[in-house]
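ok so dumb question maybe but i'm new to this and my supervisor (M.) told me to 'just get the structure for Leucine-rich repeat 2' and walked off. so i did the thing. is this what she meant?? sequence i used:
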Amino acid sequence: MEFSLSDSLSLEKSIVVVTQKVSCFFDLPVHPKASFFFHIPSFAFRFQSWNNLLALVDKLDINDAIGGPGGFPEFIDKTLALLTNSTTIKRTSLNIEFQYGESQVNTWIRSFLERGCLQLYLNAQSLYTIDTEFFTSNTLVELTITGGFSPDGLLPPGGVFFPKLKTLSLVLMTFVDSDMYELFISGCPLLEEFLLRNDEIEIPPVWNALVSSPSIKRLTIVHHFPNYREAHDGCWFRTPNLVYLDYSSYVPDWYEVDLGSLVEAGGYGDCDSVYDEEEYPDDPILGDVTNLVTGLSNIKTLHLSPDSLEVFYFCCKSMPVFHNLLTLSFESDQKRGWPVLPLLINKSPNLETLVIKGLVHQVTRRCGDACSCIPKRMKKKKKELGICCLSTCQVKVLHISGYQGTCRELKQMRHFLGNLKCLETVNVGVEMNHREDNDVDNKYFRITDALMKLPRVSSNCRIHFF
Ligand SMILES: [Zn+2]
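this is what came out, is it supposed to look like this??
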C-alpha cells in the first residue's frame, strides 16, 4: 500500500482525508472537488509533524475531472509553491478536463520536470501544446502523454531529450507531422519500452510505419486506420534487441524487419482492410506479412487476434517452422475463421500449450482439420489427404476460456480430446449468463458433465474447470 492513515480506512478515503487535512494545515485554497493527492510513506505518520511530512511527499496526483475549473489553477500554483524545495517527489500525474491558460499548464509541466521526478503522466481532454523548450529532464525514467497534449509545432532535431527515459507512451497524441514520434525515440537513447496508440478516427495517423532503435525491448503499436491505407505502404521494424512486440495495424504491402531476439509477439492485422472471402470473394487480397512472419520464427509465445488468423493465411506466402514456439494463443470471432490453424500447428513441432478464447468461429470452406466444422462434402476428401494435424501435435496443456457449452463447442472439444495424444491438462472456463439462466447450477452441471464424458485419447488427460 502506498499510503494509509488507518487500517480501517480504504485507500481512497485515506487520500481524501489527508487531502483536506493538508489543505487546511497549509492554508491552501479550499477546492473540495479538485483532487490533489499527496502520497506519503505510511510509516512517516507515526514520527513526523505535518511540516516535516510535506518534505516526504513522493507522489502527486492532480485531477480536476470531478470538480469545476474555478479556483483550480490557484490551488495548484500555491501548492506547487509550497513544494518548491521538495526533492522527494518521484511520480507526478496531471489529469485535466477543463481548459486553462496554456502558459500556466506549461509552467506546471516545467515545474514537475525541474523537481527531478522519475515518472510523469500527462492527460488532457482539451488541446494544449507543450512548450518543448523546457521539455527535458535528466531524471525522468517513465513518461506518458495522452489526450490533448501535443508538441509545439514542428520539433527541431534534438527537440526532445530525456537521457534516462526507459518507458515512453504516446497515446492519442496529435502531431503536425507523422515523423515526430521518431524524434521522441531518438531523444531517448536508453529507451526500452515504447507504446504508440493512434486508433481514433478523428485524429490523423501519427505513425509512418518505421520504428528504429537499438535499445527498445518492448514495443506496442496500435494503428487503426483500416480505410486509410495511404498512411503507409510498407513497414520497418529495425529493433535488434526487441523481446516483446504487440502490433495491430492494417497490413501494408511489405515488411522489412530486424526483430532480433523476439520472445513474445501478439496482435497483428486488420482484416477489414484485407479480405472478406465470404462476402466479397472477388476482392483482391491486400497486404503481405510474409517477411514479418519470417521475423517471428524464433518466438516462444504467439498471441493472435481473430483477424490475424486470416491475415496469416491469406497474406503470408510461406510459413516458417516455429521451432521455439511453446505457447500459441488466439481469440475466436464469429465473423472470422481459423484457416491458418492447421498450418501453424504443423509448423510448431514443440508446441506445449494452446490457449483459446472462445471456440466459436466462422465456418468457411477453409476450415481445416484443427476444427470440427468441415462441411460434410469435404470430410471424405480431407480424410483421404492424411492424418489430422492434431494427431501429431505435442500439446500438453489446452486452456479454453469463454466456453458456453453449445453443441458446436462440445463437438470441437470432442475433436481436441479425441486427437491430442499428449494432453495432460485441460482447463475450461465455463461462461454462464446469470441473468438469463434461471437454473444456473443445473446448467453448469450439464455443461461440465458433458465435457467429462467425452472420450480422451490421452490417458493422462485431466479436465479442470475455472
Ligand atoms: Zn472451423
